[in-house]
Protein 1
Amino acid sequence: MGNVVQRRTRGALRRCPFEVCGNMAGLELLSDQGYRLDGRKATELRKVQARMGVFAQADGSAYLEQGNTKALAVVYGPHEMRGSRSRTRHDQAVINCQYSMATFSTAERKRRPHGDRKSTEMSLHLKQTFEAAVMTQLYPRSQIDIYVKILQSDGGNYSVCVNAATLAVIDAGIPMRDYVCACTVGFVDETPLADLCYAEESGGVSSLALALLPRGGQIALLQMDARLHQDHLEALIEAAMTACKGVSKVLDEVVRQHLQEVSVLTGE
Amino acid sequence: MLKSKTFVKKTRSGGVMKIVREHYLRDDIWCGSEVCTECKQESTVLQRDACIESSLCSYPHYLIPDTNVVLHQIDVLEDPVIRNVIILQTVLQEVRHRSAPVYKRLKDIVHEKEKHFYTFTNEHHRETFIEREPGESANDRNDRAIRMASKWYSQHLKTSETGADGLKVVLLTNDQGNKQKAEDNGLLVYKCEEYIKSLIANPELVDHLALSNDEKNEITSSKVLFPEHLPLSKIQAGIKSGSFLQGTFRASRDNYLEATVFVQGEGEDSTEVLLQGLQNLNRAVHQDVVAVQLLPRDQWVAPSSVVLQDEGAAKDDNAEEEDEEKEVTEAARKPTGKVVGIIKRSWRPFCGMLNVAQIKESTRHLFTPADRRIPRIRIETRQAATLAGQRIMVAIDGWPKHSRYPNGHFVRSLGSAGEKDTEQEVLLLEHDVPHQAFSQAVLSFLPKMPWAITPEDMVRREDLRNLTVCSVDPPGCTDIDDALHCRELENGNLEVGVHIADVSHFIRPGNALDKEAANRGTTVYLCGKRIDMVPELLSSNLCSLRSNVERLAFSCIWEMNHKAEILKTRFTKSVINSKASLTYAEAQMRIDDTSMNDDITNSLRGLNKLAKILKKQRIEKGALTLSSLEVRFHIDSETHDPIDLQTKELMETNSMVEEFMLLANISVAQKIYDEFPDCAMLRKHPPPPPSNYDILLKAAKSKEVEIHTDSAKALADSLDVAKVDGFPYFNTLLRILATRCMMQAVYFCSGMDSDFHHYGLASPIYTHFTSPIRRYADIIVHRLLAVAIGADSTYPDLMDKHKQSALSNNLNYRHKMSQYAQRASVAFHTQLFFKSRGILNEEGFVLFVRKNAIIVLIPKFGLEGTVFFDTKDKAAPNLVFDEEIPGVSVPAPDVGPQAKKPKLDR
C-alpha cells in the first residue's frame, strides 16, 4: 500500500499536459469478457509457490511467492525475553514482528528498508495478526520473533507476509490455532477482485486486506483505508474469505509436502 | 488451466521505468462460434450461417478487422448488414488508446446481440499469444498478433468436425505490408474497400466508407495550402517549455476566418488567443484541442467586426485578410496566434445539407453543416441526386494539407429538409439530446398499473390529504411537479407548504430507469414537442400532482409569521390530494376577484402576500432581475404549424410560485449541505469577470446612462434606474444584454468546491429541488434529503463525491445543450411562421454593430437576426464604421430604413 501513496504524490507533481497520453485513458481493470489485466478472472488468485525451512540456523523460516510478490519470513523463538524485561507477560508469550522491504524490491530503489512509518504500521498489523493465531499462552514469560522481508513487491505485501510468516511459524513448530491466511481484495465495476497485483492496487481501487483463520472462519485482522459504501462491504469480505480459503489449501499442501520430505530424511 | 508466464516490459513515463507484470495464458478461452464442437463454451455469439452476398467471398465467413479498419471504418461496422465479426483483444485495446469515442461505439456494437460481434481475448490465449521480438515495433507486434489470431481461427474452424460447410475467416486490413505478410501466411485477406465494394447486395455501404489517405485523393491541386502540423512529441516539448499553449479551439459563429483558443491556465487565470485567417486556423475544427503559438506582438490584431460566411472557393480568401483594417488601437489588440498542431480532434458526425457539385457526373460534393462553426466537408457519394434536398449526417475522415476542405463520408440521411420532423431530428442530434424511445429494460421498472398507494408507502409518510393544496402552472402543462398551500395556524402564524412530486419513490437508484434518466439529465421542451427525461407514465401521470387524485409528494413546510420570517422548517415525505390545478391566469383571477372567498383563494392570497415580501427582501439583498425574450407559439392542432406567436407574459402569480420554489430550494440546499458536507449536489452561479460587462456598458453609454457592475446589488440598482424618456423598451434591452454578460449557473458537488455563492439570486447556497420530473439533479437532491430525514437509505454512488461530480458535469452539459436546442427550435418555428407571412414591417432594435452588418432584435417575435448591408447583388453602401461607439454612420441619408427588415438567412 505504501506504493499507492508514493505513486499518487508523484503524479500530482508532474502533471501530464495532454489529454491523450496513453496513460490518461487509464487501465481497464476488468474487461467486459471478465478478464483482468494479467489475464486472471475476478476470483482467481495469482500463482502461489512456497518453500519451508529455507534457513538452517533460524528456528523456522519460509519463502513464499505470490505472483511477482516474494517474501522471506524467519522465526526465532520462543526464547527468553531480550531487551527490556518490562514487556514480559506472565501469562503468555510476547510476539515481536519486524517488517522490512529490500531496497531492490521495487522498480525504483528504496532508500530506507525499514523503520519508516509504513513499515512500522505493517509490523504492528503483523503482530496483531499473529497474536490472534499463535497459542501464546503456552509460552509465558517468553518471546517469539517474526522477521519478514519483502524481496520483490508487486501488490498484496501484507497478505504475502502473513502467508509466509504462517509457514515459518509452522516450520518453527510453534502451535497455532489454525493457519492464518491473508488476501487482499479490491472492488471494481461492482465486482470484487481477489489478490490484487500492484497495477490494480495503484489503479484507484478501494482495497481491503483480510487475515482469516479458515477452519473456524474467524477474522484475525481486517484492514481497509479506502472509501467504500457499506452495501458493498459484505460482498467484499465474502470474496476475501473465499480467497483466503483458497490460499489455505495451497499452504496446507506445502506443509504436507515439506513434512514428507523431512520425514523421509529423518525417518529412517 | 492456469499457465503462468511472466514477461518484462519497459515503458516510459517521464523517465525510464521498468514495469514488471504477470501475464497469464489460458486454455479456457473459447472461439465463440456455433460451429465449434471443441470449445466448451456456454453460449455462442458467431452464427453458423454467416452468409453475406459478396463477389469476393462466396462462402460463409467471419470478419477480423485490424485496428485501423475499426478506427476509420466504424460507420461501416455499425451498419446492420455487417455481422459475425471477431474483435480481437489486441484491436480493442489499441482502439481504446487511440480514440475514446470509437471505442465506445465499438463496445456498443459488441453489446448488440443482433450484430453477432465476438470479442476474442487473444492476448491471454495460450496459442495466440506472441512475444515482441527484439527490434520489432509495438505496432508490428500487434499486427503479427492479429495475423496469429486469424491463423488460429482459420485452423481451429477447419479442424472442428463440421468444417465441411467451409466456414472461413477473412482478415480486413488497409495496410499493404500487413496484407502482404498475411497472404504469405496463407490467410484470406482483403482491403476494407475491396471487401465492402464486393458486397453486391448492399451497394449503399460504399458511401459509408471513409476516404483513406493512401488512395491519393487528388481533390484539389497539389498546392500545399496549410502548414504541416507538428508531431505530438514536439508539441509536448513546446508546451512544456512554454513556447506553445494548449487550448480548446472555438470557431466564431460570425466569421469563418476567425476563431479563439481558450487556454485554461493555472487556477483561475485563463486566456483567450485570437486566430485569424485560414493559414493560422490551420485545419482546426470547432472544439478540437489544439496547440497554438503566439505571434510576435507587432502582428497582434483586434477581433474583426466583419460578418463573414464561407461562400465557397470562389472568393479569394487571402485578399480578404489583407484589407483588414491595419490601424487598430493598441488596446483593442488581442494576443494573436496560429495553430501549430492538433492534440485531440473532437470530430463527431455532423448534420447538414449537401451542396451538389456543378458538374453532373461528379461524385465529389461539398457538404454544409448546420452548425456554422464547422467548415464545409467534401464527401464522395454516388447518390447525390437523391441526397440533394435532404438533411444528412456526415463524418470527417481527415484534412490533408493540400485540401481547402476536410474530407468526409456520408453516414446517414435524416429526411428531407424543411420538414418539421427532419429538422427536429437535426436539432436534437446537433445538440446531442438523447431522444430515442425508452427501451424495454427501462420501461420494465415502471410501476404496474393500476397503481394505488399501499399501506407500506404510508409508513414513513405524513398524511396531508386534508390540506387545501393547489398547483399553479402554465397552461397545457401535464408534468406538474409542484403544489402549494398556505393556512393560518392557531397561534396566528402562517403555515406554508411546498409539495414536490416524489419522483425518487418511483425511480430507484441504479436500475435501468435511473441510469437512463441520469443520462438524459433533463426534459427538453421544444415547440410542440417534449423530450421526456422519464417515461410518460411517470411524468404525466403518477408523478404529476394533478387535482383530485392522491399523489406521493415530498413536502417542505415552513411556519412563518406575517412578516415572512421563517420560524420553523420541516421536511417530510407525504401524501397529498391537490384541490385544483390552476393556470397562472386563473390563479391571478381568483386573487383579484374579491367576491371569491373559498379556501383555495384564501390560500393563494396568503401565498401571494408572503411572496411579495420575500421578493422584496431578496431584491434588497441584491438579487438580479434579468430578462430574456421568450416567445410562445400558438400551434395549429392539426398541421402543427405555428399560426401565431406572442411573447410570454409575466403575472404576479408567476413570481409567487417562483418565490416559494426559490425558498424551498434554498432551505433544502442548507439542509443537505449540513447533513452531507462532502457530497451534496448544489448549484452555484459564479460572478462574471468584469470584462464581460463591456457590451452592456457601451450600450448604456450610448444613451448616457451609467451602469455599475461592482456587485450584484449595484448592478441591480443601476438597472432599476436606467430609464430613458420616450424609450420604454430601453430598460428591457439593457436587461437582455445583462443576461448575456452572465456566466452559466452550474451544478457541482459540495465536496469538490469551496465557492457556493449564487450570484444571480444573491444566495450563499442554492440547489434544485422543485422539478424532479424534468431535472435529474432534483432527483439526487430528493434522495439526499430523504436520507437526511431518515425516510430512505443511502447507496454507494450517492456518497461518492467523484461520481457525483462526474454526474453534475453531465447534467451541466445536458442542461446547456437542452437550452440551445430549445432556442434552435424556437428559431426554426419562427422561420416556419414567416414562411407563409411574406414581408412584414416591425419595430426592431439594434443590439450589436459590426462593420458590414448589424445584429437586430425584434421584440414582438423575439427574433434576433443579422442584417447585412451588402447583399450578393448589391454593393455595400458607403459606411463609416466607428469601433468606439460602436456605430455605423451612413453618409448618404437614403439607405436608412433597410435595417428594419431582417433577412432570414439560413
Protein 2
Amino acid sequence: MQPKDSLVDAVAENLLDRLEDCKRTFPTTLCMGGSLEAVRRLLRGRGGIEKLIMMDTSNDMVKLCKNAEMRMPNENIETSYVVGDEEFLPIKESSLDLVISCLGLHWTNDLPGAMIQARLALKPDGLFLAAILGGDTLKELRIACTVAQMEREGGISPRLSPLAQVRDAGNLLTRAGFMLPGVDVDEYTVRYKNPLELIEHLRAMGESNALIHRGKILNRETALATAAVYESMFAAEDGTVPATFQVIYMTGWREHPSQQKAKQRGSATISFKDIQKQFGQSDER
Amino acid sequence: MLRFGRVLFKEAGTGISKTLSEILVCPLSKQPLRVCEKTNSLISDSIGVSYPVVDGIPRLVPSNGKIIDDEEASNSNSAVDPDAVKNDHQRCSS
C-alpha cells in the first residue's frame, strides 16, 4: 500500500473505532471534508448509521464519493451527497446524531466557527468526532525549510499552513460549547526514500500549503537546498527520511440534561465543616 | 416504490432525496430552502438566493449562490411559460 493510503486509512480507522466505544447509535450522520472516501470505505457498519450525508467543498470530491458508492458493501445505509462548506454549514439545527470529520478541519479559516456550527447542527447528546493535523506535523520539513531559506534568502516566509497545537484543541472544543471534551494525540512517522517523495505524497494528499501568504515562488535553489538540509539533518542510515504527522483527535458532545456537570457556584448545601465533623479530625496517612 | 439498499427516494425533478430536503438549509441564513424543479435549484427565500443542483447533488457553498431578482422569483413560483425564465438564470447542466 502506498504511504499516503495507509496514513489516511489509519486515521479514519482510529476515528471510526471510537464509535464502538459508546453504546450509542448514530442514525443520522454527517461526514464532512477531508478523507470522506476513506471514512465511507472503512465504516463497516459501525455506529449504527442509517442515513449518511457526505459533504465536501469540492464538487469533484463529492462526485467521486458518489460514484464510489456503487462499490461499497451493502450496509443498508442511505447515503446523500451535498457540496457544502464547514464554515457555512447548510444543515438544520439539532438534526444530526453524529458529525465526523477526518483530516478536514485543519483547512478551515475559522475553525472555532466551523465547530460551533457543527455543534448547533447536532441534536442534544449528539457527538462531534474530528481528526485534525496538529502542530508537530512535518516538523522536519519546517526546520529544513527554515534553515534552507535563512541560508539562501536571508529570511523566512510561511511555507506550511498553520496547524493547531494540542493545547489549543481542548480550548477549541469548550469554546465551541461542547460538553465532555476529549482530546488525544497520535504521532505517525512515515518513511520516504527521499525528501522529494514526501513533497509528492503531500501533493497527492492535497495538503500543499493553502496559506494565501506563502511566498509565491519557491525558489528552485531553495527547494533543492531544503531537500539537502532535510536529508542531512534527518536521514536514517539507510538513506530514508522520516516525516512526522501529528494527528489530534477531538470528541465533544452537544449539551443534554442527562450529562453530568459541575453544580452551580453557591448551590452547596453542605459545608466542609460538616464533612470534617462527620469524619472526625482524621490524620493523614 | 421499489427500494434497493442504496437508492434514495427522490423528489420529482431535482432528484434530491427526502432526507436531504428535510435537513438542508441555506448556508448563510440557516433558513429552510424551497425546491424549484423548473430551474433545478434550491431557493432561499429569506435572502433571495438560489443554489444549483447538479446531477442530483445540491451545491450549497455560498459562492455557488445566485441572487435572484423579483421577476425570476415570481417566474419560479408559477407553473407557466419556461421562456419567461431569464437566460442568465443559473444553468444546471455543466
